[in-house]
């Protein structure tokens, strides 16, 4: 079955950035910022070696959900859009197939503080709702990852859950977690 992202015309420009599908050749450019301690600290899978990263990056199920963020031809980050089924009762489960998405992002810290992450994530939200017709987006992070949850709030996502010490961090132990979401009908107010 064709991935929904395959139905779009890539690359997609924003005001300053270019979003495009990830390809195996993006391995080294993404490793350059994903290996940094300040970035690795908050990744869902903080692979420690290049070989481990390469194996994970090149998995088809990962690469298919990954977008690359470019600034003037340079890779400065990546975005994830994992399209998912909504929870539904059995009788209507077919209506809940592929209607929502999980968002994720990683930005090279040397490009932080310039609004690039906000611009890229806003563009991905617009693509998700307008081009792909998704009805709901969500994202999760550790409570201690303030930069991530502040980004979610900047793009108009609503904090839906604050869990207490339910999220296991590889060096910090059990931490609080946060979940944010946004519905398609809420999006136009934030463009």
What does this 3D model show about the protein?
The chain is an alpha+beta fold and 191 residues long. The protein is built from six helices and eight strands. It has helices spanning 27-34, 37-40, 50-57, 60-63, 116-131, 146-154; strands spanning 12-13, 18-21, 66-71, 74-84, 100-107, 136-142, 158-169, 173-183.
Characteristic key phrases:
single chain, 191 residues, alpha+beta, eight-stranded mixed beta sheet, 6 helices, 32% strand, globular
- Spans where pLDDT lies below 50 across 5 or more residues: none
Overall pLDDT score = 94
The sequence of SSEs as H and E is: EEHHHHEEEHEHEE
Spatial separation of the terminal alpha carbons: 32 Å
Residues in helices, as a percent range: 25-40%
Number of helices: 6
Structural class: alpha+beta
The number of E-state strands comes to: 8
As a percent range, the share of strand residues is 25-35%
Largest sheet composition: 8 strands, mixed
- Global shape: globular
Short précis:
The protein has 191 residues and is of the alpha+beta class.
Structural topology:
Blueprint: E1 12-13, E2 18-21, H1 27-34, H2 37-40, H3 50-57, H4 60-63, E3 66-71, E4 74-84, E5 100-107, H5 116-131, E6 136-142, H6 146-154, E7 158-169, E8 173-183
Parallel strand pairs: 5-6
Antiparallel strand pairs: 1-2, 2-3, 3-4, 4-5, 6-8, 7-8
């Amino acid at each position: 079955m064709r991935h929904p992202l395959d139905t779009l015309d890539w690359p997609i420009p924003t005001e300053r950035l270019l979003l495009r599908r990830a390809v195996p050749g993006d391995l080294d450019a993404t490793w350059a910022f994903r290996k940094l301690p300040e970035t690795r600290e908050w990744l869902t899978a903080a692979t420690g070696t290049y070989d481990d990263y390469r194996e994970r990056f090149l998995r088809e199920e990962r690469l298919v959900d990954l977008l690359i963020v470019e600034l003037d031809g340079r890779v400065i980050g990546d975005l994830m859009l994992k399209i998912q089924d909504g929870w539904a009762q059995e009788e209507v489960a077919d209506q809940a197939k592929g209607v929502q998405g999980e968002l994720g992002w990683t930005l090279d810290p040397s490009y932080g503080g310039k609004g690039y992450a906000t611009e890229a994530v806003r563009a991905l939200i617009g693509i998700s709702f307008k081009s792909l017709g998704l009805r709901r987006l969500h994202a999760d992070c550790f409570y201690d990852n303030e930069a991530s949850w502040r980004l979610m709030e900047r793009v108009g996502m609503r904090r839906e859950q604050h869990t207490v010490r339910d999220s296991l961090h590889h060096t910090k132990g059990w931490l609080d977690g946060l979940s944010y979401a946004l519905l398609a009908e809420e999006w136009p107010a934030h463009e």
